[in-house]
Write a structure and sequence with these properties.
Layout: E1 4-6, H1 12-41, H2 44-50, H3 53-80, H4 85-107, H5 120-123, H6 130-138, H7 140-150, E2 156-158
Antiparallel strand pairs: 1-2
Length: 163
């Protein structure tokens, strides 16, 4: 085995962020499948009534979900394993999500009342990805980034030798 750098195991913010990342990524992957089925199976009148913005951005939402959610899950697992590279990757991910969500809000002309994005009428049939919608509604990338940036950067070097 190689030497690896780890952050101290007793750091609750990293473990909390790791668990949240894994949960949101898992919910998001399930929701992505649900989104595709819902978007193509629902009548056009339903989509026009409850999610007219989806006509313009469904494919981009699916692509963004397919890129962001695996990284979110990976960083969650790596944070739970206390890998130091996960902190930097997760910070980069959160900044990327903040930029993506900002662009999404402007280009899709979404209502600024974010609660509509997590409404059961919008999420249930798959008009918005649950994993991403929960992050938008809760501001998770912002407060997650703040927690990561406030985390002390002291690393514990652990030597692991072949047995």
């Amino acid at each position: 085995m190689e030497d690896s750098e780890r952050v101290p195991m007793s750091v609750p913010p990293l473990r909390i962020i790791g668990v949240i990342n894994v949960v949101l990524a898992s919910a998001g992957f399930f929701a992505l499948l649900w989104n595709v089925v819902g978007f193509y199976a629902l009548p056009a009148s339903f989509i026009d009534t409850y999610g007219p913005f989806m006509r313009r951005g469904f494919v981009s939402m699916c692509i963004a979900s397919s890129i962001l959610l695996p990284i979110l899950g990976y960083t969650g697992i790596q944070l739970l394993r206390s890998k130091c590279h996960a902190i930097i990757l997760c910070e980069f991910l959160f900044v990327s999500e903040i930029i993506y969500f900002s662009v999404l809000m402007v280009t899709w002309q979404l209502p600024w009342a974010l609660t509509s994005l997590v409404s059961p009428v919008i999420v249930g049939p798959g008009l918005v990805n649950l994993g991403l919608a929960l992050q938008i509604a809760s501001g998770y990338p912002i407060w997650g980034l703040i927690l990561l940036l406030k985390h002390p950067r002291t690393l514990v070097h652990v030597d692991v030798k072949d047995r």
